[in-house]
Amino acid sequence: MSEISRDTVVPLYIQIAGEIKSKIEYGELPANSKIPTEMELSSDYGVSRITIRKALEMLVEEGILIRRQRVGTFVSDKKVSGKFNNCMGFTESCELEGSKPGTRFLSAELVKAKPFDVESLELAKDDKVIRIRRIRYCNDVPVVLEETHFCKRYAYLLAEDLNRSLHEILREYGVIVKKGSKIISICHATREEAEYLQIMEQDALILSRDVAYDMSGKPVYCRRDVINAERYQYKILVNNVLSEE
Prior knowledge:
CATH class of the largest domain: Alpha Beta
Helix content: 25-40%
Largest sheet: 6 strands, antiparallel
CATH architecture of the largest domain: 3-Layer(aba) Sandwich
Number of strands: 10
Low-confidence stretches: 80-87, 238-245
Oligomer: single chain
Mean pLDDT: 83
Distance between the termini: 55 Å
Order of helices and strands: HHHEEEHEHEEHEHEEE
CATH superfamily of the largest domain: Chorismate lyase-like
Radius of gyration: 22 Å
Shape: elongated
Strand order of the largest sheet: 4-5-6-9-8-7
Strand content: 25-35%
């Protein structure tokens, strides 16, 4: 039986959470390893499953453990981070954080504009857009499945090496991304997304919808990113602080 003290004011679940955290820190429970079940931990520590559940929930909230539906509870990978502001691309955000960016180009094609494209890029209903799909890597780990849509005046992109930073290519053509908007929500991995990001189907992902604008305020592109939050997190840079009323 694992050692915990019942002669202290520290709740049992906090002691158990601390012991599990220590095992992770010292490598007894490596990243991505599956931890014992609630029943096994309950027997090991001599406490109720409710107490074990509270300890695990605490570690899940801290991002130390990850619950995977119908599979179990696992030790989280250490997350890599990227700073973000509305005019910074993935490559720049990784480099600013001291991480190594990478890209795997998937496809580039002309497709019918979706309602989000029409609204965001100020297009006609029947217009087409250039759709570029890529996997983005941070320190050789696949973290983002990226789909970027451009209106047809950016067709010159199709002749470029799309494993490079799109922002860098745009700058070479005199297009500077000045500002943007971002809507963040949650989604669950499709079979394709799970395969590309090396995760389980139906795992929770961050869904980010972005629109970027040039110096004159015209929309440059709109983008849909699905982000593996177990391996990558954004640091949002805020340029102004609201004063208290």
